[in-house]
Amino acid sequence: MKIDRDAIRELAEILNDTDLTEIEVEEKDLKIRVARQITQAAYSAPAYAPAPAQAPAQGAPSAPAEATAATPALDASHPGALKSPMVGTAYLAPEPGASNFVSVGDKVSEGDTILIVEAMKVMNPIKATKSGTIKQVVANDAQPVEFGDVLAIIE
Q1: Cα–Cα distance list, 149 to 76, 140, 145, 146 (Å)
Q2: pLDDT value of position 32
Q3: How many helices (H) and strands (E) does the chain have?
Q4: Which residues contact 139 (CB under 8 A, 6 or more apart)?
Q5: How far is residue 67's CA from residue 6's CA, in Å, rounded to a whole number?
Q6: Measured between alpha carbons, how far is residue 53 from residues 58, 68, 88, 98 in Å?
Q7: Which one of 15, 22, 29, 147 has the minimum C-beta count within 10 Å?
Q8: Is the pTM of this model over 0.85?
Q9: Cβ neighbours for 101, distance < 8 A, ≥ 6 positions apart
Q10: In angstroms, what CA-CA distances link 11 with 6, 51, 118?
Q11: Quick check: helix, strand or coil at residue 46?
Q12: What is the mean pLDDT, run by run of 10 residues, along the chain of 155 residues?
């Protein structure tokens, strides 16, 4: 069996560039799988249950834009939609009790961490795909997300 070292290096670079933990390609009778184990001991899943949402008191201002989810169809088609690359649990802060990575109105650069998605006990940083301003944070802290769910809007 001849090993294509260039193909393996290229796949490893894709892993690093996209923050994926595993990638596999198959061509004819050859299959290459490259995987890595990411350990981020500084962050663990919160040991608390999120407080249930309460209805605002009559006459109280509505919830801030980052806490309200917009229509999913509208968000998914938005050119600044940052979508989840995996199924998991979204965390808006690096650890329980810490400030969120970003808030509505923050300026971000391509590659800045916007939030974390925990998948199979691995904390995966979700990074800005472009520079701009955070217009909306759609994901809720400690809530499940699906592949392709809109996490935030960057304009």
Answers
A1: 8, 12, 6, 5
A2: 80
A3: 2, 10
A4: 84, 90, 92, 115, 145, 149, 151, 152
A5: 45
A6: 15, 11, 21, 20
A7: 29
A8: no
A9: 92, 93, 94, 112, 113, 114, 115, 116
A10: 9, 42, 22
A11: coil
A12: 78 78 79 70 47 48 43 66 91 91 94 92 91 93 91 93
Domains along the sequence of the chain with CATH:
5-35 (no CATH), 65-154 (2.40.50.100)
In terms of Cβ atoms closer than 10 Å to its own Cβ (0-12, 13-18, 19+), residue 113 is: middle
**Who contacts 148 (Cβ-Cβ below 8 Å, separation ≥6)?**
76, 83, 84
Tokens 């990638």 belong to 23
Residues listed for the chain: 155
